[in-house]
Amino acid sequence: MESLIRILVRAKKDKDAVTATIKTFYGDWGGQIDVTSMGGVRRYNDLVKRIEEESKGYDGLIVVLCPREMKELRNYRAHPMNVRLVNLDKAKVRNARISEIFWAIEKGKALFRIYARWHPDKQGYVHFGTIGEPLRLKCKPTYDMYYAIGKPHKELFTELFGAPIGENPLVVKYDEGVHEVFQGSSMALRILIPYEYDEDVRLVGKGEYEPIDVNISSCINLNKSYLLFLERYAFKIFKWAEANTEYDYDRVIVPWSGGKDSTVALILSIKYFGKENVVPIYVDTCLDLPLNIKYIDEIARRLNIDYVYAKADISIELKKRGSLPTKDDRWCTKIKIKGLYDAMKKISDKPLIVVGDRDCESLSRLRRPFVRWHEGMLQIAPIKIWSTALVQLYLAMNGVRLNPLYELGFYRLGCYICPAFRSWERRILEKYFQELATYRKRFSTLKYA
Q: For residue 446, what pLDDT is reported?
């Protein structure tokens, strides 16, 4: 079966350079990424024709590497939905170092999620194509974007920064804790959210803007064809795994935390494999944020499915150690994974595991293939290239509400002692869950405590 990602270059020598890059950086991808030459064509019309021919005959993602010799393509905007163009600041692709080619490929993947235009008539954002007003966005493989959905989210912005913001603004999450909040096509607020739990969130920039309410229903309608394209692509990943591995799985397992990503992974798995073949597993750490188990039960009823409840009581180990897990020692994760694997062993001898991993979460996840082996079991990550915004819209399109904890302002969910929680999450804990914040503080070694 054909690859999941195709890199398109102009000439054979460029293809050789990209092939060397794939061997070095994507050696464990096993045919999930390949490279094709356009036969040396040079003229704009010939390049466009070749790209569109390739796109029609191929239902994976296409990343076109455009060096200076293909500068004419900078004016090519209305390319097919499965194509992204990446400008490489070299005379030719073959002149670039393989590390530069690698990051160009990763930027091409990122362009499938870090993209938005504002449609003023519809009061919504478009995440593909050329309709609407462009936003001034930077794109990097580790960036993400999301809708700050809910009135509490809006109130938090106003409370922290004294700046009125409309409902459901689009937020772009850059590196080093920098976030930009948009109102329409205008950057309204630039916020610094330190990674350290005890540091304060602060406003570091402000633009000229009028508060604008974003209509999520309009966003769904504007992006429906793109969301369905991403759904088909997820199914292609499942098909690729079945066609290219000899793994005779007996169950499809979805580790289901109640978070947005694992919930989308669950919906996609049910649609493709059938609900009778899918087993969601919820691992209760006994330190989960409140409402999580209620949400799990609610969505299970909505989807008409059963799930396996597993317990991995992290609070016992917390009391024994007397201190919180850290970013360098996430002993909590090991306990949770053990709980998951113990539960899997009871229901499956050869599980196929569908996870909600996404590229922008970390560099290690970015480097992992869509389909990979882990401890003798096959794992599939069907939403690797999605942004949080696309995840949110896909859930809404399928009539599945977000976990209400997101509406309070959480970017990610987990235990309330999570070492990945930042100053932003501390604010939310202290505002809505003072008892949990106080309990966490008892075990903290941070200066603020």
A: 63
CATH number, domain 220-442, options 3.40.50.620, 3.30.1360.70, 3.30.70.2570, 3.40.50.12500: 3.40.50.620
Q: Retrieve residue 354's tokens.
A: 């569908």
Q: What is the pLDDT of residue 1?
A: 76
pLDDT in tens, 145-191: 999 999 998 888 888 888 899 999 999 999 999 999 999 999 999 99
State the chain's maximal CA–CA distance in angstroms. 69
Give residues with Cβ within 8 angstroms of 298, minimum separation 6: 401
- Delimit the domains of the chain by residue range: 5-110, 117-216, 220-442
Q: What pLDDT, on a 0 to 100 scale, did the predictor assign at position 445?
A: 75
CA distances to 43, 109, 215, 262, 318 from 354, rounded to whole Å, are 44, 20, 31, 9, 29
Q: Look-up: residue for tokens 């930077």?
A: 138
The label of the residue with tokens 């036969």 reads: 39
Q: What's the residue count for the chain?
A: 449
Neighbours of 239 (CB within 10 A): 14
Q: What is the structure's pLDDT at 449?
A: 44
At how many degrees (to 10) do helices 260-273 and 292-303 cross?
A: 20
Query: CA torsion sign, 403 to 404 to 409 to 415?
Result: negative
Q: What is the DSSP string of 410-435?
A: -SS--BTT-TT--HHHHHHHHHH-HH
**Which segments in the chain show pLDDT lower than 50?**
449
pLDDT of the residue at 150: 92
Question: Contact, 214 vs 145, CB < 8 A?
Answer: no
CATH tag, 5-110? 3.40.50
Using CA of residue 33, residue 39, residue 41, residue 44, what is the dihedral sign?
negative
265 in Cβ contact with 254 (< 8 Å): yes
Beta bridge partners of 371: 380
Q: What is the pLDDT of residues 69-100, one digit of tens each?
A: 998 898 898 999 999 999 999 999 999 999 99
Residue 337: how many other CB atoms lie within 10 Å: 13
Q: In the numeric block, which tokens belong to residue 4? A: 């999941």
